[in-house]
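Standup notes
- DV: blocked on the single-chain target, sequence here:
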Amino acid sequence: QVQLVESGGGLVHPGGSLRLSCAASVSIFSIAAMGWYRQAPGKQRELVATLTSGGNTNYADSVKGRFTISRDNVKNTLYLQMNSLKPEDTAVYYCVADLHLVPGRRYWGQGTQVTVSS
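- DV (later): unblocked, structure below
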């Protein structure tokens, strides 16, 4: 069983920054890839960013140049640094993880709310 616990969400003004964290209950070296999804009210879930065990990153076009995904291998924690936030970034952000030894199964965190508003 893998647990992913997100934190760092909150209310921020347009143009501001937030850093989301996702603490994994397993060694990050057992994880093939991690990422962040988001879902705004009335909208489909959107993949925001991914980071593979090999260090490859991928971003949605809507966040390129503003968001940065990274990890701390000692703390088994994934981060999402979000800069230049816009109202359209408002959503619940979910952390996900795919394990090397459990292919085809994606683990989800409980989500953290990010609200960008003046």
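- Follow-up: The radius of gyration is 14 Å.
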